[in-house]
Design goal:
- By secondary structure, the protein is α+β, with helices and mostly antiparallel strands.
- It has helices spanning 26-49, 52-82, 121-126, 149-167, 179-182, and strands spanning 14-18, 85-89, 92-97, 103-108, 112-118, 128-135, 141-147.
- The two termini are 23 Å apart.
- Helix 1 runs antiparallel to helix 2.
- 43% of the residues lie in helices and 23% in strands.
- A four-stranded antiparallel sheet has the order 1-2-3-4.
- The chain is built from five helices and seven strands, in the order E-H-H-E-E-E-E-H-E-E-H-H.
């Protein structure tokens, strides 16, 4: 069983699992292409202009700088992107990140008081944005580069609404005149078939 299934409690249903939007990797990709081109040019120049040992030393120096820069500016952001998880279940929102040192935030659905999203023109074109979750007693938390942020916003809103309905005194979503409509499915987003 792989991540994020390992992070779930018994009978907790996974509704959504995303890494940050790929736009987070745009700058590292451009850095990789440009720095590789410049390094290739410098290695070609060193082999053409220098001779023997000095040419080899220059080529090794350029290759070493290339490895350091690519590791720092390209590979590290890629690993960070891969190790950042935004997860929504039927009970909570989980954010997990980190490679060596892991950190995480769990927000139970019952504690969420407000869900908002924000995205500018470029984010709308790329299908991403910032998700803002306010819990009952804490400051709002902002999560950048959430893919399909409007869909995630709708999902969270519906799950929070279902959580409030389920906790309402005297409310039993399975004991009503509409029981035939909800038979075999839980109320909420999944019952709406909006996946």
């Amino acid at each position: 069983m792989g991540y994020p299934q390992d992070a779930l409690a018994d009978e907790e249903e996974l509704l959504l699992h995303h890494h940050p939007h790929w736009k987070m990797l745009l700058l590292p990709a451009v850095t990789f292409i440009l720095f590789t081109a410049v390094s290739g040019f410098l290695i070609g120049l060193a082999s053409a202009k220098a001779d023997g040992t000095s040419a080899t030393a220059l080529m090794i120096a350029v290759a070493l700088v290339w490895v350091i820069v690519v590791g720092w500016r390209c590979v590290a952001p890629l690993i960070s992107w891969k190790c950042t998880h935004f997860i929504v279940t039927d009970r909570r929102v989980l954010i997990r990140q980190g490679v060596i040192t892991h950190s995480g935030i769990d927000i139970p659905m019952g504690r969420i008081s407000n869900v908002q999203f924000r995205h500018g023109l470029l984010d709308r074109m790329l299908g991403t944005g910032t998700l803002i979750i306010a819990s009952a007693s804490d400051d709002p938390l902002e999560f950048d580069d959430i893919p399909r942020v409007q869909r995630v916003h709708s999902l969270l809103y519906q799950q929070v609404f279902d959580s409030m309905e389920f906790r309402r005194p005297g409310a039993d979503p399975f004991d009503s005149a509409d029981a035939s409509d909800t038979e075999g499915s839980k109320p909420g987003w999944r019952a709406g078939r909006r996946r």
